[in-house]
Specification:
With about 575 residues, this protein is mainly alpha-helical. It is about 65% helix and about 5% strand. A 4-stranded parallel sheet has the order 3-4-5-6, with helices on both faces.
């Protein structure tokens, strides 16, 4: 029994899913794989061009890593490939160390990812606080958008500087050279993607914009730069296998970037896997996922590819298209291979303005801008961590940003835990106040259940709240979360409670919070949590929470009687 458990714990999801695989599931996977393969084509080329490489490097990466991540990873519907998160890092590595340096860095990052997975560190990503994650995704989004301004407006600018403020200065100084044709094409691309999303999430707006933009350039012979005019097209045929040249002199300089690539790869792939779980009602294996990501990044440079990770947008597209297993991800890679083999000449007509428009939408979507207003409602310390990470991402580099953000967060963690220690005298008032919070003399009704959080609920501990929703459909209509013994709360912890509230609401269940101490209560109030669960569902003690549960039950019964009559 133990041996079987051990083996299954390290098996890729592709093998586990084949146990009950059917022809019907294959048909769904085939449709989803072809769909997401077409979506991945313009994105793969756009990410490669934005990184300072040839468009085929992105396609090679999407084929090789897309297949391996699906075949060897721990997620059922995850799609792997080049993503926007790596654009800034890759362009910096290529500028400093050349393509050889990039390939070495990718292999080093792949080895680090494999070590993390084998060592069981798949759950360690939870120790990165939410303000840090939001800070560098905001920063990366702005950096990606700034690299696309030249092609979006068709500016006559030779070399775009790698440093952000120099780039802004160069773009502003040459803005008078804009091409109205390229600008209209890029703006039209953005508009088509927005309209497609407004009509239905199932319509792949990137494909529609990609095909319409390319057709417009071919039919009307528009004077804009294309893949063919800048890069001479992409070579047809299989990518060549070549082991990257090892240069010992680059190892020291690449350690920092390799760690950044590995950390970004781990964070984004596991975030994407969590999204995949929610959408497909599955549960990924984080350690197997990291091993699969590691293998893919070791092999990618051998075919001239970039670093890769799980891609949230493509994963979501895959699930919406009906994917049932990792076979869909492998078919997505084979679809791209078929395009490379049989349709490479057509790709040379793709306008760079269209790719820039697609990347502008990607940059906006990955920025998590909706999180900022919520973040600003939190404590000054959480806001300061976000601001420092964001500023350093834009004006320094990602390695420095993540390191500084983590150091700040660690210091704040120590401070918050230390502040939970109190020394006070036991008085009659203290004893009397405690009676309303104790559970021993309370009758818990059948229509409610109580969960409690004990200790500091800060980043690093938030995954434990999954116990609330683990058996979601067996829960009663009212769930009470007792916070009396929760000594501290931060932005990451609050976000985790918000996610639980949304999951419960999605199944028509009510969440009631009760007994929060001063610091958690203050943060819950600042974040306007009452807007999510209702002010009446935030109670002072468990006694009041049970009374509120009774009110909710009575309302549900009255509604049920009304429906029957």
């Amino acid at each position: 029994m133990g041996c079987v458990f051990f083996e299954e714990r390290w098996l890729p999801k592709s093998i586990l899913c084949l146990r009950d695989y059917t022809a019907n599931k294959f048909l769904h996977d085939l449709i989803a794989g072809i769909t997401v393969g077409l979506v991945a084509l313009p994105l793969a080329m756009a990410f490669a061009i934005a990184s300072g490489l040839t468009p085929q490097a992105g396609i090679y990466c999407a084929i090789v890593t897309g297949f391996l991540i699906s075949a060897l990873g721990g997620s059922k519907t995850q799609i792997g490939g080049p993503t926007g998160a790596f654009v800034v890092v890759i362009s910096g590595i290529v500028a400093l160390h050349g393509v050889d340096g990039l390939f070495m860095c990718t292999v080093m990052a792949g080895i680090l990812l494999m070590i993390m997975g084998i060592a069981g560190m798949g759950t360690a990503v939870k120790f990165i606080p939410r303000p840090v994650v939001i800070g560098f995704t905001n920063g990366i989004a702005i950096l990606i958008a700034s690299t696309q301004v030249k092609d979006f407006f068709g500016l006559q600018l030779g070399e775009v500087p790698g440093i952000f403020w120099l780039r802004v200065e160069a773009l502003a100084g040459n803005f008078h050279t804009l091409s109205y044709t390229a600008t209209a094409l890029a703006a039209g691309t953005v508009l088509v993607i927005i309209l497609c999303r407004a009509v239905s999430n199932r319509i792949p707006g990137a494909i529609v914009a990609f095909l319409l933009g390319t057709a417009a350039v071919v039919l009307f012979k528009l004077p804009v730069e294309t893949i063919g005019s800048r890069f001479g097209g992409i070579p047809a045929g299989l990518p060549h296998f070549l082991i990257p040249r090892f240069r010992a002199d680059l190892i020291h300089g690449l350690l920092g970037p390799a760690l950044t690539v590995a950390m970004l790869g781990a964070i984004e792939s596991l975030m994407s896997a969590v999204v995949s779980d929610r959408m497909s009602n599955d549960h990924h294996n984080p350690n197997v996922e990291l091993i699969g990501q590691g293998v893919a990044n070791i092999v990618s440079p051998m075919f001239g590819g970039l670093p890769a990770t799980g891609a949230i947008a493509r994963t979501a597209t895959n699930i919406r298209a009906g994917a049932q297993s990792p076979v869909a991800g492998m078919i997505h890679a084979l679809t791209l291979l078929c395009i490379l083999l049989f349709a490479a000449p057509l790709v040379s007509h793709v306008p760079l303005a269209v790719l820039a428009g697609i990347l502008m939408v990607v940059a906006y979507n990955m920025g998590e801008w909706r999180e900022i207003p919520q973040l600003l409602k939190l404590t000054k310390t959480d806001v300061s961590v976000w601001l420092v990470t964001f500023a350093l991402t834009v004006f320094a580099d990602l390695t420095v940003a993540v390191e500084a953000g983590m150091i700040l967060a660690a210091l704040l963690f120590i401070g918050r835990v230390a502040s939970t220690t109190t020394v006070s005298q036991v008085t009659d008032e203290y004893v009397e106040d405690g009676r309303m919070h104790i559970l021993q003399d309370k009758d818990i009704p059948y229509y409610a259940t109580i969960f409690r959080i004990h200790g500091p609920f800060l980043f690093g501990a938030t995954d434990k709240i999954s116990a609330v929703t683990k058996n979601l459909h067996s829960l009663p209509p009212v769930v009470i979360l007792r916070l009396r013994n929760m000594t501290a709360l931060d932005a990451t912890g609050l976000f985790a409670i918000e996610e639980v509230a949304r999951e419960l609401q999605a199944t028509n269940r009510t969440l009631i919070l009760c007994g929060a101490r001063e610091q958690p209560a203050s943060l819950i109030h600042q974040a306007e949590f009452k807007e999510l669960v209702g002010a009446e569902n935030i109670c002072d003690n468990v006694q009041a929470a049970i009374r509120r549960a009774e009110e909710v039950h009575d309302q549900l019964e009255a509604a049920a009687i009304g429906l029957k009559s």
